Amino acid sequence: MSIKYGMAKFPENYAKAMGRDLPISTKQSIEICKYVQGMRLSRAKSILQDVILGKKAVPFTRHTFDLGHKKGIGPGRYPMKASESILRILNSVEANAQTKGLSANDLVILHIAANKAARPWRYGRQTRRKARRTHIEVVVSEKKAESKAEARGHARKGQGSTAGAKPAAGKEAKQ
Predict the structure, then answer these.
(1) Fewest C-beta in 10 Å: which of 40, 89, 131, 147?
(2) Of the candidates 94, 137, 139, which has an alpha carbon nearest to the alpha carbon of residue 113?
(3) What is the 3-state secondary structure (H, E, C) of the chain?
């Protein structure tokens, strides 16, 4: 049985990894995934290491009831256990990318998602208690970093375009 990813089409240079039935909170995993989506892989790994050490909080945007605010980000938490599991998956996807011959410095997190997994009954004497489980999937792609001069050149080319501009009021707009 092949496992499907939440992403329909993969780019040319990509690597992927998946964590199945991880014993971590799905809500915290969703917030972490939302936070690191689109980042460079090296930056995302350093942020998660800071979260594990308690130096940096993850901003929570969806699950914020009774949640204290942190300086500079608003509502946030330090989800250490979930960060450790996601960091292991990011290390795995980096190793997969290097095996495919991709440069580890140019990897960008293209897709990362947390999904609710099956919740088996916990063992022991307590009654009616289920374990929490989460699936995490990660897809990274290789994107070359463009220099600041090239980025400014692209921005200048876009300034002359009037594709999104509204027509001026008056006689010119009525033509």
Answers:
(1) 147
(2) 137
(3) CCCCCCCCCCCCCEEEEEEEEECCCHHHHHHHHHHHCCCEHHHHHHHHHHHHHCCCCEECCCCCCCCCEECCCEEEECCHHHHHHHHHHHHHHHHHHHHCCCCHHHEEEEEEEEEECCCCECCCCCCCCECCCEEEEEEEEECCCCCHHHHHHHHHHHHCCCCCCCCCCCHHHHC
Neighbours of 14 (CB within 10 A): 19
The Cα-based distances of 86 to 61, 80, 124 in angstroms read 19, 10, 28
Q: How far apart (Å, rounded) are the C-alpha atoms in residues 48 and 112?
A: 14
Domain ranges across the chain: 14-152
pTM above 0.85, yes or no: no
Give the tens place of pLDDT for each residue, 120-138. Answer: 888 877 777 888 899 999 9
Per residue in 143-170, pLDDT tens?
Answer: 876 655 665 666 665 555 555 555 555 5
Nearest 5°: phi and psi at 157? -65, -35
CATH number, domain 14-152: 3.90.470.10
